[in-house]
Each structure stands twice: as structure tokens, then as C-alpha cells.
Amino acid sequence: MIGSASAPASSANLGPGFDTLGLALSLRCDATAEESDSMTLTEDGSTKRLDEDDMIARAIRLAVDKPMHVNLVNAVPRARGLGSSSAVAAAVAGAALKAIGSNDGAARVYEIVTELEGHADNAAATVFGGFVAVAEGGIKRLDLHPTLLPVAGIPIEALRTDEARAALPPSVSLAAAARSLSRLAFLIEGLSAGSADILSHAAGDELHEGPRAALSPVTGDLIEAAMNAGALHACWSGAGPTALAFTTSENRGRVIGAMGGVLGVTGEVLALNVDYDGLV
Question: Tell me: the pLDDT tens digits for 169-199?
């Protein structure tokens, strides 16, 4: 039996929501899986055997603990801060479970993706869709005002998550932590209300965006360009280098043009929708 599943891209953090907030976006990874004599993957027209430590093989083992052949079609840019690894893991685990007729659903896939990723923000968004907050043992769907439209500025040059993580300081001051909590409160309320005034108090981040700034200066340039063009909020998408801007129908075109002016031929700007379906 062949199982199939699809999972969306996601943007984590959204500025001050470090390792806490996630937003599912309308780029998808599609996977099919069927039982096989060995762990193999077909992608982009070529087939290879998977090493035991490959993330796809690990996702399959956690899901069904038997070898599978996977066919993958992934529209989520890799190593760009758009949750590609979470989308792949969710789609593959979901497809493998369906291939054996398992009744385990989204909750089990969420556990698998969280275990593989080590943190739950991207996992919750890609599995459950929408705008979510996570805490140890808990997931909460948050409100996003319907007038807010995401725009992603995606540089060509990748930034590995482990490299971005390594740039973070081992500790922060109490003052920086307090400022971050304040920004987070304004971010959640501002995204719910669709208010530029409220969101103006959520701008910037000292926990991860500041320490990572030197790794991808273009990300900061994209954020600045988006805000100057009228975006209500702009931030690093996950660990970067993608920048995510929240726009309205009135200013979306200007923001796209401004971010495109920063990237030129060294990246692309995508007008995206929020994905509320999650894993299907």
C-alpha cells in the first residue's frame, strides 16, 4: 500500500517569539511512502539509499520502524528559515503511517517531528497549521488578523540552522529578557488586531536576531526595506536568512518591490498565504 501526505512550510520566532511561535505558510512538501526492502528516496528524478542517520530514515523508523521507499516533492526552500526539515519530516512520517494503515494521526507526527527537530515551534505549525504558540506539553492556536498577508524575501545563499544556533549567546541579561517579553506581548496582540501601532512596539529582537545579524546582513536589509515600504511587522524567518514581512492588500505590492530591490538576482520574493490545513 502507498501512503501519501503533505505538510506546509513554516516561519518560526516571528521576531521576539524565539522558539515559541510558529506560522504555517503556503509552500508544501509532498511525500509518498511504501514498504520496501531498504530505506530509499526518490527526489528530483534520482533515487538513492538512505543512511541510517539521515533525517528521512529516522522519521520513518520513529513512525513505523520498517524500511520504506519515499518519493519526495519539496517546494520549501532548504536552509532558508522556512521550516523545510520540519515539513519533510512531517510529510514523510505521515505518509509512512498511512502506508501501513496506521490510525495514528497528527498528534503522533507532531511528536516525531519535535523529537527530530529538538524544538516544537516549526513542528506545531507544519503539523497543525495556522499561527501557533508552543510550551512544554502544550500547543495554542493564536489569532492572526485576516488582513495580514505574509511576504517572504528569500536569499539564494543558505544559512544552516546549526550555524545560526551557534551564534547565540549562552545567557542574556535580565533587562534584555524583560524587553523581549514586552515585545512578545505586543507582537501577539498586534498580529491579532492587525494594528501597525501595536506592532511597532514588537520590532527588533535581542535574543536571536541581534546575535545572528552578522551571519546574514541582507536579512536586516530586507527587514528595513519592508518596514520603509509600509510593512506592519518584519522579522527574521526562523534562523534565516529569509525575512518575513506582514503586509496588507494596500501595501503588499510596495513591500514586494522594496524587498525585491534588495535581493535583485540574488534571491526571490514570494507573496504567501497562511496555511491553515497543516498536515494532510
Answer: 999 999 999 999 999 999 999 999 999 999 9
Place of cell 551571519: 215
Domain with 42 in it: 2-141
Residues 79 and 45 in one domain: yes
Q: What is the dihedral of CA 175, 184, 232, 148, to 10 degrees?
A: 170
Beta strands in the chain (DSSP E): 2-13, 17-35, 40-43, 46-49, 68-74, 131-135, 138-142, 149-155, 233-236, 243-247, 267-271
Q: What total number of domains does the chain contain?
A: 2
150-to-52, 145, 189, 233 alpha-carbon distances in Å: 37, 11, 17, 10
Last residue of one domain, picked from the residues 141, 169, 184: 141
Q: How far apart are CA 158 and CA 29, in angstroms?
A: 18
Domain boundary among 141, 157, 180: 141
Partners of 35 in the β-ladder:
68
Closest alpha carbon to 150 in 130, 121, 120: 130
Task: Give which of 144, 155, 154 is closest to 247, Cα–Cα.
Answer: 144
CATH number assigned to the domain comprising residue 218: 3.30.70.890
Looking at the domain assignment, is residue 279 inside a domain? no
* 129 lies in the same domain as 149: no
Reported as a single tens digit per residue, the pLDDT across 30-85 is 999 999 999 999 999 999 999 999 999 999 999 999 999 999 999 999 999 999 99
